[in-house]
Write a structure and sequence with these properties.
The protein is built from eight helices and seven strands, in the order H-E-H-H-E-H-E-H-E-H-E-H-E-H-E. It has about 200 residues and is of the alpha/beta class. Heterohexadecamer of 8 large chains and 8 small chains.
Protein backbone atom coordinates (compact mmCIF):
# COMPACT_ATOMS: atom_id res chain seq x y z
CA UNK A 1 0.00 0.00 0.00
CA UNK A 2 1.49 3.32 -1.11
CA UNK A 3 -0.71 5.08 1.44
CA UNK A 4 0.62 2.96 4.30
CA UNK A 5 4.20 3.35 3.11
CA UNK A 6 4.02 7.14 2.96
CA UNK A 7 2.10 7.37 6.24
CA UNK A 8 4.88 5.42 7.92
CA UNK A 9 7.66 7.60 6.55
CA UNK A 10 6.17 11.11 6.41
CA UNK A 11 2.98 10.73 8.44
CA UNK A 12 3.65 12.85 11.54
CA UNK A 13 7.29 13.81 11.40
CA UNK A 14 6.72 16.86 9.19
CA UNK A 15 4.47 18.35 11.85
CA UNK A 16 6.81 17.99 14.83
CA UNK A 17 7.28 21.32 16.65
CA UNK A 18 11.01 20.72 17.02
CA UNK A 19 11.40 20.70 13.22
CA UNK A 20 11.31 24.01 11.36
CA UNK A 21 11.94 22.43 7.94
CA UNK A 22 12.39 18.91 6.62
CA UNK A 23 12.82 17.50 3.13
CA UNK A 24 12.69 13.88 1.98
CA UNK A 25 15.22 13.66 -0.85
CA UNK A 26 15.32 9.92 -1.47
CA UNK A 27 14.56 6.59 0.13
CA UNK A 28 15.60 3.00 -0.31
CA UNK A 29 12.97 0.33 0.00
CA UNK A 30 13.98 -3.22 1.00
CA UNK A 31 13.72 -5.58 -1.95
CA UNK A 32 11.42 -7.95 -0.04
CA UNK A 33 8.93 -5.08 0.49
CA UNK A 34 9.40 -3.68 -3.00
CA UNK A 35 8.29 -7.03 -4.45
CA UNK A 36 4.85 -6.54 -2.89
CA UNK A 37 4.19 -3.70 -5.38
CA UNK A 38 3.43 -4.53 -9.00
CA UNK A 39 4.75 -1.25 -10.34
CA UNK A 40 3.68 0.23 -13.66
CA UNK A 41 2.12 -2.26 -16.05
CA UNK A 42 3.78 -0.59 -19.02
CA UNK A 43 6.45 1.94 -19.84
CA UNK A 44 7.91 3.79 -22.80
CA UNK A 45 8.70 0.51 -24.59
CA UNK A 46 5.02 -0.48 -24.70
CA UNK A 47 4.00 3.05 -25.70
CA UNK A 48 6.39 2.81 -28.63
CA UNK A 49 4.95 -0.59 -29.53
CA UNK A 50 1.40 0.79 -29.50
CA UNK A 51 2.41 3.79 -31.62
CA UNK A 52 4.70 1.66 -33.82
CA UNK A 53 7.44 4.30 -33.42
CA UNK A 54 11.04 3.22 -32.87
CA UNK A 55 14.42 4.95 -32.99
CA UNK A 56 13.03 8.49 -33.05
CA UNK A 57 11.73 10.82 -30.33
CA UNK A 58 8.01 10.73 -29.58
CA UNK A 59 6.46 14.14 -30.11
CA UNK A 60 3.60 15.21 -27.89
CA UNK A 61 1.82 18.31 -26.62
CA UNK A 62 -0.96 19.48 -24.34
CA UNK A 63 -4.13 20.95 -25.85
CA UNK A 64 -4.27 24.74 -25.41
CA UNK A 65 -6.23 26.75 -24.53
CA UNK A 66 -6.86 24.36 -21.70
CA UNK A 67 -10.31 25.73 -20.84
CA UNK A 68 -13.20 27.15 -22.83
CA UNK A 69 -13.27 25.02 -25.97
CA UNK A 70 -16.39 23.09 -26.87
CA UNK A 71 -16.03 19.33 -27.32
CA UNK A 72 -16.16 19.71 -31.09
CA UNK A 73 -13.45 22.40 -31.15
CA UNK A 74 -11.34 20.41 -28.70
CA UNK A 75 -11.54 17.41 -31.02
CA UNK A 76 -10.56 19.65 -33.94
CA UNK A 77 -7.41 20.77 -32.08
CA UNK A 78 -6.58 17.11 -31.41
CA UNK A 79 -7.04 16.26 -35.09
CA UNK A 80 -4.98 19.20 -36.36
CA UNK A 81 -2.15 18.57 -33.90
CA UNK A 82 -1.92 14.87 -34.72
CA UNK A 83 -2.29 15.41 -38.46
CA UNK A 84 0.41 18.09 -38.24
CA UNK A 85 3.01 15.64 -36.93
CA UNK A 86 2.42 15.05 -33.21
CA UNK A 87 2.33 11.44 -32.04
CA UNK A 88 -0.02 12.20 -29.18
CA UNK A 89 -1.81 14.98 -27.35
CA UNK A 90 -2.99 15.09 -23.77
CA UNK A 91 -5.66 16.72 -21.65
CA UNK A 92 -4.47 19.27 -19.13
CA UNK A 93 -5.02 18.64 -15.41
CA UNK A 94 -8.12 20.82 -15.09
CA UNK A 95 -9.87 19.50 -18.19
CA UNK A 96 -12.55 17.45 -16.53
CA UNK A 97 -16.30 17.73 -17.10
CA UNK A 98 -17.28 21.39 -17.23
CA UNK A 99 -20.57 22.74 -18.64
CA UNK A 100 -18.86 23.89 -21.86
CA UNK A 101 -17.46 20.38 -22.47
CA UNK A 102 -18.64 17.28 -20.65
CA UNK A 103 -16.24 14.36 -20.40
CA UNK A 104 -18.18 11.96 -22.66
CA UNK A 105 -18.39 14.60 -25.36
CA UNK A 106 -14.64 15.26 -25.07
CA UNK A 107 -13.77 11.56 -25.27
CA UNK A 108 -15.93 11.08 -28.39
CA UNK A 109 -14.58 14.12 -30.24
CA UNK A 110 -11.00 13.26 -29.25
CA UNK A 111 -11.36 9.74 -30.61
CA UNK A 112 -12.91 11.11 -33.79
CA UNK A 113 -9.89 13.41 -34.18
CA UNK A 114 -7.47 10.56 -33.45
CA UNK A 115 -9.12 8.24 -35.98
CA UNK A 116 -9.22 10.93 -38.68
CA UNK A 117 -5.57 11.85 -38.11
CA UNK A 118 -4.52 8.20 -38.18
CA UNK A 119 -6.36 7.70 -41.47
CA UNK A 120 -4.85 10.86 -42.96
CA UNK A 121 -1.26 10.06 -41.95
CA UNK A 122 -1.20 6.27 -41.97
CA UNK A 123 0.32 6.40 -38.48
CA UNK A 124 -0.94 5.30 -35.08
CA UNK A 125 -1.93 8.35 -33.01
CA UNK A 126 -3.24 8.88 -29.50
CA UNK A 127 -4.48 11.29 -26.86
CA UNK A 128 -4.28 10.94 -23.08
CA UNK A 129 -7.86 11.18 -21.80
CA UNK A 130 -8.11 12.59 -18.28
CA UNK A 131 -10.32 10.33 -16.15
CA UNK A 132 -9.71 12.22 -12.88
CA UNK A 133 -12.99 12.54 -10.95
CA UNK A 134 -14.46 13.03 -7.48
CA UNK A 135 -14.80 9.30 -6.68
CA UNK A 136 -13.11 6.08 -7.76
CA UNK A 137 -16.47 4.83 -9.03
CA UNK A 138 -16.55 7.76 -11.45
CA UNK A 139 -12.88 7.25 -12.40
CA UNK A 140 -13.63 3.62 -13.30
CA UNK A 141 -16.75 4.65 -15.22
CA UNK A 142 -14.78 7.16 -17.31
CA UNK A 143 -11.94 4.68 -17.83
CA UNK A 144 -14.33 1.99 -19.05
CA UNK A 145 -15.91 4.46 -21.45
CA UNK A 146 -12.50 5.55 -22.75
CA UNK A 147 -11.71 1.90 -23.45
CA UNK A 148 -15.10 1.34 -25.12
CA UNK A 149 -14.62 4.22 -27.56
CA UNK A 150 -11.18 2.92 -28.57
CA UNK A 151 -8.64 4.80 -26.48
CA UNK A 152 -5.50 2.93 -25.47
CA UNK A 153 -4.35 5.45 -22.86
CA UNK A 154 -5.90 7.28 -19.91
CA UNK A 155 -4.54 9.89 -17.54
CA UNK A 156 -5.02 10.63 -13.85
CA UNK A 157 -3.87 13.62 -11.80
CA UNK A 158 -1.47 13.25 -8.87
CA UNK A 159 -3.91 15.19 -6.67
CA UNK A 160 -6.19 12.11 -6.68
CA UNK A 161 -3.86 10.61 -4.07
CA UNK A 162 -1.80 7.45 -3.71
CA UNK A 163 -4.68 5.02 -3.20
CA UNK A 164 -6.52 6.28 -6.28
CA UNK A 165 -3.33 6.12 -8.35
CA UNK A 166 -2.59 2.58 -7.18
CA UNK A 167 -6.20 1.52 -7.84
CA UNK A 168 -6.38 2.88 -11.39
CA UNK A 169 -2.93 1.42 -12.11
CA UNK A 170 -4.32 -2.02 -11.26
CA UNK A 171 -7.36 -1.37 -13.46
CA UNK A 172 -5.11 -0.31 -16.36
CA UNK A 173 -3.02 -3.47 -15.98
CA UNK A 174 -6.13 -5.68 -15.99
CA UNK A 175 -7.61 -3.85 -19.00
CA UNK A 176 -4.43 -3.60 -21.11
CA UNK A 177 -4.52 0.20 -21.05
CA UNK A 178 -1.62 2.64 -20.83
CA UNK A 179 -1.75 4.98 -17.84
CA UNK A 180 -0.20 8.44 -17.64
CA UNK A 181 0.21 10.14 -14.26
CA UNK A 182 -0.02 13.90 -14.55
CA UNK A 183 2.07 15.58 -11.87
CA UNK A 184 -0.60 18.19 -11.07
CA UNK A 185 -0.06 19.30 -7.49
CA UNK A 186 3.54 18.10 -7.25
CA UNK A 187 4.85 21.57 -6.42
CA UNK A 188 3.00 21.52 -3.10
CA UNK A 189 5.45 18.76 -2.14
CA UNK A 190 8.55 19.47 -4.16
CA UNK A 191 8.97 23.20 -4.85
CA UNK A 192 10.61 24.34 -1.61
CA UNK A 193 14.26 23.36 -1.42
CA UNK A 194 14.31 23.06 2.38
CA UNK A 195 10.93 21.45 3.02
CA UNK A 196 8.76 18.82 1.38
CA UNK A 197 9.49 15.82 -0.82
CA UNK A 198 11.69 15.55 -3.87
CA UNK A 199 9.59 14.67 -6.92
CA UNK A 200 11.90 11.68 -7.50
CA UNK A 201 10.41 10.14 -4.35
CA UNK A 202 6.84 10.92 -5.41
Amino acid sequence: SLANLTASIIGNVFGFKAISALRLEDMRIPHSYLKTFQGPATGIVVERERLNKYGIPLLGATVKPKLGLSGKNYGRVVYEGLKGGLDFLKDDENINSQPFMRWRERFLYCMEGINRASSATGEVKGSYLNVTAATMEEVYKRSEYAKQVGSVIIMIDLVMGYTAIQSIALWARENDMLLHLHRAGNSTYARQKNHGINFRVI
